[in-house]
């Protein structure tokens, strides 16, 4: 614990058990480490993800043996896809105990390997500090990873521990001038080109540079589907996101002869569909990487813009709010309410899935804000991300926009929000359905089709109806129900103005 604190770790999101008792005591003895209790490991891991994205440094998680680690794996998967630095501490039985195959014995290292990050296991007290330092160094290695340290209980309770010395963090690798010159030649060719940006390239420097490049060369600038931290709002450029559905992405890229990526990966289909290609780069087009994951994509874009567009300014959105809508909430009007009332320096958590397609346009002219998205596609990251973001930036308002199906995965995050009195306005978008699955249904139908997706009970969340207002109140959070734009506006304004967490259940139509 002292090693992690010396290395800059300030927060441990924990759901500890018997094997972690000595680590809990050790954490309590280190004054500059803050323990944040969660009731479910998936909340702890998602919160560490949100914290890392906003703080720009890792938090730690403390999980109980293999089953606790397994509960947290879903949001650690999302963390891995977001390239978030996370130190995952997993307790284990004493080294001599596992041979007896007691009920909670499992292969913890195999679970850690699934995350494709560093996995270490000190076998005695003397190795705990060294392995903690190495785990922290691995977590912050660009572009960031989930690094796991498995701590046997006897390595915790025995004497002989030595504080380790964390290695200094490494900066992202620069892109070579040869690569920048080669990409410049592609853009000068005059052939139709798409520039896809992501990762660190979707913050101010990268966004403005990409806008300049697009204006000077005619390149079609697109943003990756899910970004770990997007800077958005007035005085910044806005670009279309690649679509979730492959047929729409194919249309976005139609006719291009070159696809250039900067901080993003080559576009691929989120899911495989019959008779649809997995790689969405148009047939015959060439792919070029300006900056790979882990390289300084923003700096590379700035250098490229200075080379190709030295006298070109970025095209930015002017400060502008949507007109406040009225009447029953629709898929468009709820986003207009948020855009009209979004406070300064907000952090938006976007786990809206099928209900939020109008959100980027509605908030483009709002005061500048950050947007955190669920990067790995595993549902249930939104409420935990909000916890971590609010812990990392207690002076900033956090607005968690979460689909009803996603919210139920990690609803206990509300308890941590209430316990820590975090400034989070939760808007649960309740369409009483897994709307995204109803939309997906059409991609797999064959004449005469398998039936009506609106009648399929496996997509229905209305029987019984879930009352998020009562659930939130049960966790100690003020909550209200909005069915009209007027109600949402009044409740959203009040929630933003009052300290502590709030929840609004916004009833909206489903996507079909």
From TrEMBL:
Keywords: Thiamine pyrophosphate. Pfam families: TPP_enzyme_C, TPP_enzyme_N. The keyword Disulfide bond does not apply. Residues 2-98 form the Thiamine pyrophosphate enzyme N-terminal TPP-binding domain. InterPro entries: THDP-binding (IPR029061), Thiamin_PyroP_enz_TPP-bd_dom (IPR012001), TPP_enz (IPR045229), TPP_enzyme_TPP-bd (IPR011766). Gene3D superfamilies: 3.40.50.970. GO terms for molecular function: acetolactate synthase activity; flavin adenine dinucleotide binding; magnesium ion binding; thiamine pyrophosphate binding. SUPFAM superfamilies: Thiamin diphosphate-binding fold (THDP-binding). Residues 367-505 form the Thiamine pyrophosphate enzyme TPP-binding domain. Belongs to the TPP enzyme family. This is Acetolactate synthase-1/2/3 large subunit. It comes from Micromonospora violae.
């Amino acid at each position: 614990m002292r090693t992690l604190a010396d290395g800059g770790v300030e927060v441990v999101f924990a759901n500890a058990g018997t094997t972690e008792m000595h680590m809990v005591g050790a954490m309590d003895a280190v004054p500059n480490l803050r323990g944040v209790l969660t009731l479910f490991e998936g909340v702890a891991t998602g919160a560490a993800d949100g914290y890392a994205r906003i703080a720009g440094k890792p938090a730690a998680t403390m999980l109980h043996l293999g089953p606790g680690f397994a509960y947290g794996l879903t949001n650690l998967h999302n963390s891995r896809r977001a390239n978030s630095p996370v130190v995952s501490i997993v307790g284990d039985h004493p080294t001599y105990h596992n041979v007896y195959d007691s009920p909670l014995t499992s292969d913890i290292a195999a679970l850690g390997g699934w995350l494709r990050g560093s996995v270490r296991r000190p076998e005695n007290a003397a190795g705990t500090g060294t392995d903690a330092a190495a785990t922290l160094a691995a977590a912050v290695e660009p572009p960031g990873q989930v690094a796991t340290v498995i701590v046997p209980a006897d390595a915790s309770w025995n004497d002989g521990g030595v504080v380790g010395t964390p290695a200094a963090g490494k900066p992202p690798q620069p892109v070579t001038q040869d690569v920048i010159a080669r990409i410049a030649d592609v853009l000068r060719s005059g052939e139709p080109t798409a520039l896809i940006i992501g990762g660190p390239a979707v913050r101010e420097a990268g966004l403005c540079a990409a806008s300049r490049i697009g204006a000077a060369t005619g390149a079609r600038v697109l943003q990756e589907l899910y970004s770990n931290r997007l800077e958005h709002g007035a005085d910044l450029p806005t670009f279309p996101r690649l679509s979730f559905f492959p047929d729409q992405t194919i249309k976005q890229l139609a006719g291009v002869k070159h696809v250039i990526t900067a901080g993003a990966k080559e576009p691929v289909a989120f899911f495989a569909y019959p008779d649809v290609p997995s790689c969405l780069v148009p047939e015959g087009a060439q792919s070029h990487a300006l900056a790979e994951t882990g390289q300084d994509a923003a700096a590379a874009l700035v250098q490229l813009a200075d080379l190709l567009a030295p006298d070109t300014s970025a095209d930015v959105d002017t400060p502008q709010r949507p007109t406040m809508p009225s009447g029953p909430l629709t898929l468009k009007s709820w986003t207009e309410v948020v855009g009209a009332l979004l406070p300064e320096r907000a952090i938006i958590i976007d786990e809206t899935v099928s209900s939020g397609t109008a959100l980027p346009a509605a908030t483009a002219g709002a005061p500048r804000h950050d947007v955190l998205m669920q990067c790995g596609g595993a549902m249930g990251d939104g409420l935990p991300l909000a916890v971590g973001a609010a812990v990392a930036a207690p002076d900033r308002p956090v607005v968690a926009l979460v689909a009803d199906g996603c919210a139920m995965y990690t609803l206990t995050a509300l308890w941590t929000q209430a316990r820590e009195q975090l400034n989070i306005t939760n808007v649960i978008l309740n369409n009483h359905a897994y709307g995204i699955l109803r939309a997906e249904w059409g991609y797999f139908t064959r004449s005469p089709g398998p039936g009506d997706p609106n009648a399929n009970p496996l997509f229905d969340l209305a029987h019984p109806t879930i009352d998020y207002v009562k659930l939130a109140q049960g966790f100690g959070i003020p909550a209200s129900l909005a069915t009209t734009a007027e109600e949402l506006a009044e409740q959203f304004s009040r929630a933003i103005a009052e300290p502590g967490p709030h929840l609004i259940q916004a009833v909206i139509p489903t996507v079909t």
